[in-house]
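Submission sheet (multi-component)
Chains listed below:
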Amino acid sequence: MRTSRDAEFSEYVAARWARLVRAAVLLGCSPHEAEDVAQTALTRCLVKWSKVEGADDRDAYVYRVLVNTFTDSRRRRWTSERPTGEVLEPVARGRDATDEVDARDAIDRALAKLADDQRTAVVLRYYLNQTEAQMAQTLRVAPGTVKSRLSRALKAMAIDPGLADQSSGTPGTSGRGLR
Amino acid sequence: MNEQELMTALEGRASEVHPAGPPTGAMIGRAAVARQRRTAFSVVAAAAAVAVVATTISLVGVGGDRSTAPQVVSPTGGGAGFAEALALLPADTSDLYFNDQAAAAGRLGLEASSVAEYNAELLDYVLADDGDGAPDPGGLFGPTTAYFERMAELPFNEYGVRWSLEGTSGDAFTYFTVYKMKPDVDLDAIVDDLVAAGLEEQELLGRRRAFTESVTSVVGPDQTIGDGYPIEFLDVTIDPEADLVILGRLSERILQVLDGELESAATAGTFDLLVGSIEDVEVASLSTEALCGRKSIVPAGLRKPAQAGHLVHGDDAALAARLVFADADTAAADLEARTAYLAGGPIGKDEEPLETYGTYDLTRDGRVVDVRLGDMGSRTLRDLTSDPGILSC
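Outcome: structure written.
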C-alpha cells in the first residue's frame, strides 16, 4: 500500500528529476552519468526522507546530497571513463549552425576550465539559484569561501573568450557583472 | 557576460539535456535497498570472472543476553578488530560494513609470508570451485581486494590489510573507508607515492594527509593514481602509530575520535543493540536506520525495523541477523509474519520455503528479533544477506 510519504516522495522526484539531472550535467557529468548521480542522490534522500521532510529548505538539502554524490562518484569511480577538465571537440557543424549550439559549446568549455569547486559554486548559484548562505550550508564551507570561489569563477568566466563572443558586449552593465 | 546572461546561458545549456522520465518511487526504493547489498563476492567475481569456492557452513545460535551491551572485545583473541573499528568511529555513524580480512584468511588457511605468496593463495582460493559457485560468506574480500594484483608492488597492498571498515556518517551521507594495516607496512611510503603522483600534502591533526580537489590532475588514463592506486585514494590520511589508513573527507573526525576529542561509536553504544553479545566478529553489516528504503514488494505483515544488520562470526563463520523494532508489540507482530513468510516462501533462487535450503531459527526478546541460519550453502547465505527483505527489512 502506498503511503502518503511514498506519494510525496514520488511527487518530489517527478517535479525535480529533470533539474537534478541537468544540474549534474553542468557539474561535469555525461547525461547518462548524470541520471545515475541524480538517482543515487535521490536514493540517499529516500533513506533519510524524514530528515529531508524536516529540512527548512528541502531543495537545498537535496542539492547538498547531489553535490556530495557527484563528488563521491568522482572519487570512487574506478573503471568508468576518466573525468576530464577538457571538453570534447564539438561535432563539426556547417556554416548554418545555430547560435544556441555555439552558446552551448561556449558554456561547456567555460565550465570545464573552472576548478571543480568553482564550477560547483557556479552551478549552485546560477542554475540552482541558491543564495550564498545556502551554498555555505550545501558545501559546508564558510560564507567567505563561497564568495571567494564564486569570485574566482566569475573572473575566469568574464575573461573567457568563448563566453565573450556570446555576451551582450556590455559586461557588468546590469550592475551585477561578472567582474 | 553578466550574471543574468550567465544564468540564461546555464538554463539554456541545461534545457538541451533531455533525461529519460523520472524513476518511480518504487525504482528508487529498490535502489535504496541495493545500497545495502554490500557483498564482497561481487567484487571478486568481477575481478576474477570465475566461480569461487563455496564453503558449507553450520551456524550456531546467538548466545547470552541479547538485550545487554555487547562484550565483543577479546583483547587478545578474535573480534579484537571489530572492537578496534567501533572505537574509532564517530558516535553518529549510521551504517557500517566491516571485514576482518586477516581473520578470514587465517580461518580459511591462507597462510603467507609475503605479498606474492598471499596473492597466489588468494587467487587459488578464488579460482577454486566446488560447484556451488559462491564463496565463503566471511570477511576475506575488502574494498580493494579486486585490485590485489595491480597493487601487489605498492606499499599499500592486500597482504598488508588487517581489516577494513566502510561507513556513512553525518546527515550528508559522507562515506569513509578505514584500513587497519599490519604493523610492518610503511604508511609513509603510501603518502610519499601519492604526493609524487601529484596529490598535495597537508598535516592534519599531526598526521600526514595527501589529497587533491582536482581529480583530473592526478588520475591517469588507466583510472589509477601514480603507480596503480585506485581512485578512492584521492584523500588519504595515515596514522602510523595506530597503523591506520583513512580515505575520505571524514578523516579529521576519525582522528578526533582516535585522539579522544570526539565520542566513539563504541563508547556511545551506537551499534550495541545490533551486535548484542556476539564475539569474534569477522563481518558486520549494520545500520541504525535500517536502509530498507521503499521495498516495492514487502512480504505481507513484515514490519519495518528501526535498526537492522547481520554478522558473520566465529570459527565456523556463523551468520546471525538482528532486527530491532520500535517496540515489543511491533517485534511480536513481525516475528509472527516473518515466521510464516520464511516457512512458506518464496525464498531464494529456487523460490522455495527457507527450510528447503537448511535449518533456521527465529526468536524474539522484547523489541529484538533474531534470525539464525544453519547448515545452508554459502550461495543461499549470500542470497539471504543481500536480500534485506528477509534479514534486514
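Remark: The two ends of chain A are 55 Å apart (CA to CA).
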